[in-house]
Design goal:
The chain is built from 16 helices and 10 strands. The strands form 2 sheets. Strands 3-10-9-8-7-6-5-4 form an 8-stranded parallel beta sheet. A two-stranded antiparallel sheet has the order 1-2. The chain has a single domain, classed as Alpha-Beta Barrel (TIM Barrel), CATH 3.20.20.70. Helix 14 links the parallel strand 9 and strand 10. Helix 1 packs across helix 15, helix 4 packs parallel to helix 16 and helix 12 crosses helix 13.
């Protein structure tokens, strides 16, 4: 059996085990994929200061995100079609996150529904909301999230329109996959995945199918979603959603200081510095490059989180040093899920935690809450 030591090992295994269209959906960005690649590579430029002869006993990565206790400053990011990386994917990932002691965020565009995840993985997970033109559907989604006792609502602001992802168009992405000759040949080489999918009834967008008038199958869903993302989304809608929800609100997709200031004015509890994993505006600044300016501008008024490019515990440490209260991982947990199901997600979290813990100690700290940019080598990290 392959010894798994890092996230790249999980990625390679997932690539072997997940059908091409779904692997490519997770492992791709928009247009030239420049921002997608920069998200990851810009982390590598940031160097640490190693300290010695420091007592490294009694270390702890425990902290809080929006007041919630977490085992490390990491949450699982909302990702669409998670249940197509592995059968019942959202349920398995939510279980792994809960056992590890970090938040799991369920996407509006998940395969397993809010109710499915609450029943089989437990309540209290976070829920990510896309703003659709059908406001009645949004109200019902929020009410369903309340009924599942979701701990936070993560409102995505950067997907009013879709960035073009060439691989998805070329692969003819759909859920469930269309039974073309090309797809059938590829799926035939992924027996573990195929058997899992045959054994579950969850193969469509569970939060939508059966919950929207006139959407009962994939053909009607495709046309509905193409028309539904609301290009007219504005800060007035954010205010309406905040009142309707009434709980902890996190705004996802902030890349600019001016938008960060508006996020503060909205009364949100946290914002996520994010470019949607490089899947929307190609050519945008990487998340880690954008982070310091936003922390300097609003960090004293709102919790600042970030996502995009995190592939290791060292990346978590770098982001924390630059002022992020917490980070979100998307692709790393999807690689783990596609590779090994729930055990793969757990392995992903174990890898990131161990890297974070040991690297923190090398930098002379035993508590994550004492880490700041003094652990970084001057001249190697982005500044405001």
């Amino acid at each position: 059996m392959t010894v798994i030591t890092n996230i790249e090992d999980l990625r390679r295994l997932a690539e072997k085990r997940v059908p091409r269209m779904f692997y490519d959906y997770a492992d791709s960005g928009s247009w030239t994929e420049g921002t997608y690649r920069a998200n990851e590579s810009d982390f590598h430029k940031i160097k640490f200061r190693q300290r010695v002869a420091v007592n490294m006993e009694n270390r702890s990565t425990a902290t809080t995100m929006i007041g919630q206790q977490v085992a490390m400053p990491v949450a699982i990011a909302p990702t669409g079609l998670t249940g197509m990386q592995h059968a019942d994917g959202e349920i398995l990932a939510a279980r792994a996150a809960k056992k590890f002691g970090i938040p799991f965020t369920l996407s509006t565009m998940s395969i397993c529904s809010i109710e499915d995840v609450a029943k089989h993985a437990g309540e209290g997970f976070w829920f990510q909301l896309y703003v659709m033109k059908d406001r009645g559907f949004i109200e019902r989604l929020i009410d369903r999230a309340k009924a599942a006792n979701c701990g936070a609502l993560v409102l995505t602001l950067d997907l009013q329109i879709l960035g073009q992802r060439h691989k998805d168009l070329k692969n003819g992405l759909s859920a469930p996959p269309k039974l073309t000759v090309k797809n059938m040949i590829n799926i035939a080489t992924k027996p573990r995945w195929a058997l899992g999918m045959l054994g579950t009834p969850r193969r469509q967008f569970g939060n939508i199918v059966g919950h929207v008038t006139g959407v009962a199958d994939m053909s009607s869903l495709s046309s509905w979603t193409a028309q539904q993302f609301d290009p007219a989304l504005n800060w007035g809608d954010v205010e309406w959603i905040k009142k309707r929800w009434g709980g902890k609100l996190i705004l996802k997709g902030i890349q600019d200081v001016e938008d960060a200031k508006l996020a503060v004015q909205s009364g949100a509890d946290a914002l996520i510095v994010s470019n949607h994993g490089g899947r929307q505006l190609d050519g945008a600044q990487s998340s880690i490059e954008a982070l310091p300016s936003i922390v300097q501008a609003v960090g004293s008024q709102i919790e600042v989180h970030m996502d995009g490019g995190v592939r290791s515990g060292q990346d978590v440490l770098r982001a924390r040093a630059l002022g992020a209260r917490g980070v979100y991982i998307g692709r790393p947990f999807l690689y783990g899920l596609g590779a090994m199901g729930e055990a793969g997600v757990t392995k992903c979290l174990e890898i990131i935690h161990k890297e974070l813990d040991i690297s923190m100690a090398f930098c002379g700290h035993t508590k994550i809450d004492t880490v700041d940019k003094s652990i970084l080598l001057p001249g190697t990290y982005p500044t405001a």
